[in-house]
Amino acid sequence: MQSIRHLPQLDGELGWFETAPNRDRVLGAPLKSSQRFDVVIIGAGFTGLAVAHRLAELEPGVTIAVVDALKVGQGTSGRNAGFIIDLPHNLDAGAPDVAYNQALYRLNCFAIERLRHMRDQFAIDCLWHDAGKYMTAHETANLGGLTAFTAILDACGFAYESLAGEALARRLGTAYYQQAVYTPGNVLMNPSALVRGVAAGLSGKATLFEDSPVVAVESSSRGHRIRTVGGELHAERLVHATNSFAEEFGVVRQRLAPVFTYGSLTDPLTEAQYESCFSGVRPWGLTSAHPAGTTVRLTPDRRILIRNTLDFNPSLGSHASQRAEAWRQHRRSFEARFPSLASVAFRHTWGGMLCMTRNHESVFQRVDARTYVVSGCNGVGVAKGSYLGYYLADLMAGHDSETLQFIRQHNQAAWIPPDPLRALAARWRLRRESAQAGGDI
């Protein structure tokens, strides 16, 4: 029996969950009994829900349970910056691999359109906005990140627009950035509201258990026994869709690096505050040309999001002291970009986990005939988790395709040394990256 040492926790005030229009909808009760299903999926984020939706399409008679330690939308899927990114943007990648990048683009677009269909089908109110995305640089030293990105875009034939100076300031409402590259295909949304809506769409297709942390799993040739506090599930097939927690279950070993980052979200700006910076400005989202730089959003309901600060946390949770330090950095970043809004407070500050791998490839595999795992979405999990979950269901159902073969070939996460070497290397790299980012944080 595999006992679980570290369980998911809330890690602060979850801004997207607290502001989600569907936050009070009851999606599932805690598991407090013994029940049997054909398939159990651990993890009710975008990946696990994608598995459930697709498996219900392929095997309509199968009984499916999805179990999560928290409420849907409180986990990693509801804590990110709310981008569904269409374009490959690994700034460490080196020379562009055109065929590979175009294949990733098609997969990301597939995920966007599938989520768009669910938004329409299930009437999900999530501030969905086809806004595109800016990649920006403040520091001259980081302009090379934009050059590397446009090299990928040019090689692959992807559309973009380069902006600088006053033209860029008019788009963003701040003159903080020297240059930017705008790409049109990205979607912005409230991720907690979206993932909760996707979960609600499983009604009649799967049984959802919220607030039900799994404390142990026992597997044998007869199937799986999944224990929670006060309940248990029995299943023939088990899917692990828990990202960094996959190593807790023993199905992934020495492949994952849990990196915490932090977000702060304001209340909606008043009319006067909004007009002082953003008169005539449409809602937008930007990421940094440096991997450790700050992500910023101006939302359709006139809030501002700041996301930055990186910690390596093998405990799979954050500490209050880390969130306090992140809040202080968020204030510096916010006031540097929007000095006229220095009096605007953050209503919510929280931590969330990036599940990173050394080679930026995910774990996507059949562990044995009854056990499957997806993890390591490397910070782009809304799109990547959605398409990996979809195609994992295809793998489970024996539904082969060229796309599934491509995914299996290109999602083989590289080995990472064990702690303490893993921790030493990760913390050294995060410190170096943060120092190099400079004013882009």
Automatic annotation (TrEMBL):
Which keywords fit this entry according to its UniProt record? Oxidoreductase
Q: What molecular functions are annotated in GO for this chain?
A: oxidoreductase activity
Pfam families listed in its UniProt record: DAO
User: Which InterPro entries has this protein been placed in?
Assistant: FAD-dep_OxRdtase (IPR006076), FAD/NAD-bd_sf (IPR036188)
Q: Does the keyword Oxidoreductase apply?
A: yes
| EC id | 1.-.-.-, 1.4.3.-
Q: Which residues form the FAD dependent oxidoreductase domain?
A: 38-395
Q: Give the record's GO CC terms.
A: cytoplasm
Name this protein carries in UniProt:
Oxidoreductase
Supply the source organism for this entry.
Bordetella trematum
